[in-house]
Amino acid sequence: MASRLEELIGIPFNDERLLQSAFVHRSFIHEHPERIPGLTANERLEFLGDAVLNFIAASWLYTRYPDRSEGDLTALRAALVKTSTLASFARGLDFGAHIRISRGEDTPTARNRAPLLADVFEAVIGAVYLDQGLDAAWAFITPFLERQIEAVFSGTAEIDYRTRLQEQAQARFNQTPTYRTLEVRGPDHQREFTMEVLVGERSLGIGRGPSKQSAAQSAAKAALTQIDGEERSTL
After folding, report:
1. In terms of pTM, does the model score above 0.70?
2. Are residues 129 and 187 in the same domain?
3. How do residues 46-74 score in pLDDT, each as one tens digit?
4. Would you state the torsion angle of the CA atoms of residues 227, 229, 230, 231, taken in this order, to the nearest 10 degrees?
5. What are the CA-CA distances from residue 235 to residues 55, 68, 173 (Å)?
6. Residue 105 appears among annotated catalytic residues
7. Which of 16, 119, 122, 196 is catalytic?
8. 127, 154, 181: which is the final residue of a domain?
9. Catalytic residue among 50, 72, 119, 196
10. 101-139 burial, b if ≥16 CB within 10 A, otherwise e?
11. Could you confirm whether 122 is annotated as catalytic?
């Protein structure tokens, strides 16, 4: 199994058990503890891989985009490492077919679940880091980041500005943002929504888009820009 996995990721391992463990779901361990001596469930590797991925993504973005604000870099990193994105990376490498999972949970639907695939992808990163070091982990991850950042800027992948704003508002103001519709224009087949985001009674941003969701994302982006500007002015 390990040789096939090594082919998938393009990295020969010194300790093949590390790579094998990255694909072992805890349900399989509980069902067959005797069948995989020397292997463990992938949860610890996933924990480590998550930290390595976030570090590499942050470092890569920091170097690549020297003029971007902290808020922009954080939003970009979130778009690069979110569960659905990591799951798509894993699907591209056919990781789902190689996951060891219990018979009770082993269905095509289960193997295609985004959280499971994302965890395996992070576990593989953790295994690469432990076996080959940070440079190898960097070399493995950056091609995925390169492709995904193109999708982000082309509009085929969306930065979740609403989530980022919620985190900022709760951290800085101890409040959760609210959104309201200010205007809806155009015929049914070509609507334009105008949304406003508020923290308490204070308006932080207005955005427009062809749906409420896109208009709210635009408003959240405007709010993050305003918050970032206010923070800079106080320095």
Report:
1. no
2. no
3. 999 999 999 999 999 999 999 998 888 98
4. 90
5. 26, 17, 18
6. no
7. 122
8. 154
9. 50
10. beeebeeeebbeebebbbbbbbbbbbbbbbbbeeeebbe
11. yes
